[in-house]
Amino acid sequence: MVKWGKIILIILIIDLVIVGGYLGLKSLSKGEKISPTDFEWITIDESYTPTNQIEQFIQEDAFKQGILPVYLRNYDQNEKVLKKFRGSRFAGPKEAELNMMFPGLENWLLVEIKYKVKQPREREIVRAVLYVMVKGEWLVGDSGRIIWKK
């Protein structure tokens, strides 16, 4: 009887080690979760001093269109957020895909822009824009949305 107890105890210990190892590897493979609250909105108005060319372009464009203030969430070159981007040309791209689509790609930047329009009725618009730098010039690579799954 004692012999069977030892065998069952050994089997239970082996099972616990296997389940613990599986759960540990699973948590390592997922990595850190990322959410929109990890990035804050920046208010761009007439008095805002842009920190880069993209912010300056957005500020000037919004001023011309009369939609200031504009709110900007800068994701920079965060590949985890890039995977959540859905646009007209890309759906969850990787940096390698950007390099293929834009020969000579030097840099890229993903931002989310939020603003209000008053015509025909007041509504808030939120869109994500993927900017790419090719041959020293910033271009709009794609625009769309960032899909945050719960």
Layout of secondary structure:
Elements: H1 2-30, E1 42-44, H2 53-65, E2 70-76, H3 79-82, E3 85-87, H4 95-101, E4 105-117, E5 123-134, E6 137-146
Antiparallel strand pairs: 1-2, 2-4, 3-6, 4-5, 5-6
Task: Please give a structural write-up.
The mean pLDDT is 86. It is built from four helices and six strands. With 150 residues, the chain is of the alpha+beta class. It is elongated. It has helices at 2-30, 53-65, 79-82, 95-101, and strands at residues 42-44, 70-76, 85-87, 105-117, 123-134, 137-146. It starts with a helix and ends with a strand. A six-stranded antiparallel sheet has the order 1-2-4-5-6-3. The longest helix is centred in the N-terminal third of the chain and has 29 residues, at 2-30. It is 35% helix and 32% strand.
